[in-house]
Design brief:
Elements: H1 5-10, E1 13-22, H2 26-37, H3 41-49, E2 52-60, E3 63-71, H4 76-85, H5 88-98, E4 101-102, E5 114-115, H6 122-128
Antiparallel strand pairs: 1-3, 1-4, 1-5, 2-3
Length: 132
């Protein structure tokens, strides 16, 4: 029998994938990574307060990929600005991080972090399989 508790949880969250690049400077990349090893408490708390449940950022050379899970009612256009309004430290963090980043080549004119298309969902395909 398959434990379905994961499938119930996954129906209650939204998942986002985004990409951006870091400036191609090894010293700046190390600084960026160090900041993220010790993310400021105000940033963590405000992201959680607006509905972020999980956030992971991966790096390959200068390309970053962010995986994020949020509560179902999360709206990036509303809730990211709300997070920034919760603390001057969040604004400071955002400005500081932007100094390390540059748009991905595929980014649109209004994009910074660029949303990525989901092309595979293991859980939904697994759940759709007929019983064995």
């Amino acid at each position: 029998s398959i434990d379905c508790s994961f499938f119930l949880l996954s129906a209650m969250v939204k998942v986002y994938a985004q990409t951006i690049c870091l400036k191609n400077d090894p010293a700046l990349i190390e600084e960026y990574k160090e900041y993220h090893r010790k993310c400021w408490p105000e940033v963590l708390r405000s992201l959680h307060a607006v509905g972020v449940l999980q956030m992971k950022i991966f790096l390959l050379q200068t390309r970053m990929f962010m995986y994020m899970e949020t509560v179902d009612g999360f709206d990036p256009k509303v809730d990211f600005p709300r997070h920034m309004e919760m603390s001057e430290r969040c604004v400071e963090w955002g400005q500081k991080m932007k100094g390390y980043q540059e748009k991905a080549p595929e980014a649109g004119p209004e994009d910074w972090w660029t949303y990525m298309e989901e092309v595979f969902d293991f859980s939904s395909q697994l759940a759709a399989l007929p019983p064995v």
